[in-house]
C-alpha cells in the first residue's frame, strides 16, 4: 500500500510536469500567432516557419495535454447512468471498460513506434519553405501513449482497490 | 459477416462502452481498434497516423486560444461590468435581468468560439442576482443556458471551423452565415422572456422602484463595457480587416484578454495559472475526442461501412427535402446523447458526400448543422451547457431543475432551425452580400 | 521470362488506393481514374483497384507514408505534399521554370536515354518500398493575383499565398510568401490579407478564385506541374511478371492521355476566369528566360541540396534545358 501511494505520487508529479509543458505550448501558440501577423502585416516579411511550428505545438499539446487531462478526470463522459452509480459500481464499470482503453492506447504505442521508425527511416520533414523535421514529433507520440498508459494503470489499480475494499461495498 | 451487421455492431460496441461511463475519446478509439484487429489489421496504422494528422492543423489552434481568452475574461471582471450596465438600463422591466443575460451572452458569443465561457461566467454573475430579485429558476437557468449556447453560432465559432475544415467550406463565409440566425435566436429568447414575464410577473419581477439610476450612472455603466467592444474589435476586426486569418485572430483575442486583465490589474500569477490549467485540460480532452473520432471514421471507411450509410440515407423517401429532414433529425437525436465535437466529426464526413451528390449549398447546410448542434447543447439527457450550468450553480439546483428550465428555449431553437430550413436566405444572404 | 505460363493469372488482386486529394480535384477525374481504368483493362481484370478519397483511410499528408508501410496499396499526389518524405519527387513534379510542356518533360524524364531523370526518382521510390507506376502533367502551376505582372520585378513586396516550392520561388522574386490553409485563401484574397496565390491552373474554378483574382500570370512558377502514382513495392512484387509488364506498358500512353485531359481542364479554367472579367497575362519568352536564370541560380540549388539523387537530377535538368536552348 505504501509503495502504491508512492508510485501514484510519482505518476501525478510526472503528469504535472506534462501540464507545465502544455502551458508553455499554449503561450507559444498565442505569442507566435501574434508575431506571425506582425511580421507579415507590419514588416511585410512573413515567417516561413511559425505556422508550421504552431502545428507541431498542437500535436505536442495532444500528447502532453491528453495525459494531463486524463489524470485530472477531464475527459468527457456520457455519464447518463454512470453519474448515479455508487463508487463501487463505477469502479466495476471502469474495470470492464478499461479493455477499450488498453486496446486504443496499446495500439497507439505499438503502431506509433512503427510509424516513428518509418518516419526516422524516411527522414521525414515538412514539405514547407523551411523544412521542419517531423520524426522527433512522431517519436513523441508512442511516448505520450506510454504516459497515458501510466495514468490508466493508476486508475485501474485504484478501481481494483475500491472493489476489494469491504468498506465501499454496497451492502453495507 | 455481412456489412450491415458489422456496421450495427460497430455502433453498438461504441455505445455500450460510453453508457458504462467510458470517456468518449477512449470509446471511439477502443471500438475502432477492436474492429480493425478483427477485420482489417493493416489499417491499425491509422491510429498513430490520426494522432499526428488531427492536431497538425493550423485552424485547430483556435481551440486552445479561444479557451484561454474565455478563461482570462472570466477573471477580468468585465462581465460584471456588462451585467451591471444591463441591470441599470433594463432591470426595471419584468424579466429585464434575464433579457439582459441573453444580451450579454450574445456579446460574449461574438468574442468566443465556444459555449463554456459565457455559460460559466453568467452562471456565476447573473444567476445569484436573478435569485436575489426573486426570479424563477426556469427563466434564470434557461436564459443562461440558451444564451451560452449562442457562443457556437455567432462568430467566431469553433464548431463552424470544424465543419468548414471537414466540408471544405470557407470558414469566413460560414461565420457570416451564423450571424443572422444567431441574432434571430437571441431576439426570440428576449421576446419570449419579455412576454412570459409580462403575463406572469412572478417569473421575473422588475427590480424594486426605489433602486433608480440617474442618466449619468447609466451612461457610466455602458462606458464600462469598453473592454468587450475592444475584444470584439480585435478578433473580428483582425479577420474582416484583412489583417489575420481566423486562427491568428484567436491569438489576437487571447493576447487582448491578457492586456485587458493587465489593465484591470487582474493578471495575477494565480489567474494565469488557473486559465492555463483550464485551457490545457479542455484542449487535451478535445484533441483526444477529435483524434478518437478520426480513428473511428478511418476504420469505419476501411471496413467499407460508409457506402452502406450513404446508400441508406440516399434511399430515404421524400426526395431532397426528405433526406435533409432525415439528416437533421439524426443530428437532433444524436444531440440528446452526444456533444458538438463528436457529432460534427461523426456526421460531417458521412453527410458531405451526400450533400455533394444532391448539389445542396454546403454553406447553408453548415448553418443548419450548427443551429442544430446548438440545440444539442441543451437537449437532455446529455448536453455540455447543461453540465456546465449544473457544475456552477448552488448544489440545491438539481439536474431535473436544469432539464425542466430549458424546454421552452429548445422549442424556440427548433423554430429557428425550421425557419432557416424554409428560408435559406437567413443563412446565405449575408455571406452572398459580402462576396 | 516469357515462359509457358506467361499470361493473365487466375487470381484477382485487389488494391485500395487513397490519393492525397479527393474527388473534387482535377487529378481525380483527369489523372487517377483514367490510369486505374487503363490498369484494370491492361491486366484483363486481374488487378482491381478500389479508390478512396483523401481522409477516408488516413489524411492526405499521411497517405504516402501509409503506402510505404503497406496500410494502403497505392497513392497519388504531388511532391509538394510528399517532398518531405522523398525529396527526389521534386524532379518528377517539375522544377521551378523547368520543362515548358508535357512533351518536353517526358523527353527529359524517360524519353531520351541521355537524361532518364525518371530512373533517379524510381530508385528513390524503391529505397522507400514504393514503385512509381503512373505520371500525369497537369499544366502550369501559375500565379493568380490582384495585381498585374509583366516582369519579374512586379512580384516584389507582394504577399502571395505559397506552399513550399512556391515559397522558394516567390522569395527569389523578392516577394513575401505566406503559408495558409487552402480553405482560408478565398477570404484572405477577398479581404486583402494576401495579394494572390500560386495554384494549379486547372483547379482555380473549383476554388472559385475567378471571383476574387484579376490576373492569371502564365506560365507561373512551374509551367508543367506533375502528379505521380506510387504502389507499395511488396504489392508490386506480388504481381506476376505478366501483370507488371502490362502496367509498365500503360505508363507512357496514360501519361499522354491524361496530360491532354488536364490541358483541356486548364483551358476551361482560364475561360471561366476570363468570363468572370479576369485577364490572362502570358509573360513574353525573354522574360521567362530571365526568370528561369534567376531561379536556376537561387531556387534550384535548394532542391539539389536535398539529396545526392536530387543533385544529380538537377544537373540533368540543367543539361536538358541547355540542349533545348532554353538557358
Ligand atoms: Na462565438
Ligand atoms: Na444534448
UniProtKB/TrEMBL annotation, chain A:
One of its GO terms (cellular component) is plasma membrane. Residues 31-160 form the Tripartite ATP-independent periplasmic transporters DctQ component domain. This is TRAP-type mannitol/chloroaromatic compound transport system, small permease component. It is a multi-pass membrane protein. The keyword Cell inner membrane applies. It is found in: Cell inner membrane. Belongs to the TRAP transporter small permease family.
UniProtKB/TrEMBL annotation, chain B:
Residues 11-426 form the TRAP C4-dicarboxylate transport system permease DctM subunit domain. The keyword Transmembrane applies. This is TRAP transporter, DctM subunit. InterPro entries: DctM (IPR010656), TRAP_DctM (IPR004681). It comes from the Bacteria. The keyword Cell cycle does not apply. It holds the Pfam family DctM. One of its GO terms (cellular component) is plasma membrane. Keywords: Cell inner membrane, Cell membrane, Membrane, Transmembrane, Transmembrane helix. It comes from Desulforhopalus singaporensis. NCBIfam families: dctM. One of its GO terms (molecular function) is transmembrane transporter activity. It is a multi-pass membrane protein. The chain crosses the membrane at residues 6-39, 51-73, 93-114, 135-154, 160-193, 221-241, 285-303, 323-351, 363-389, 409-430.
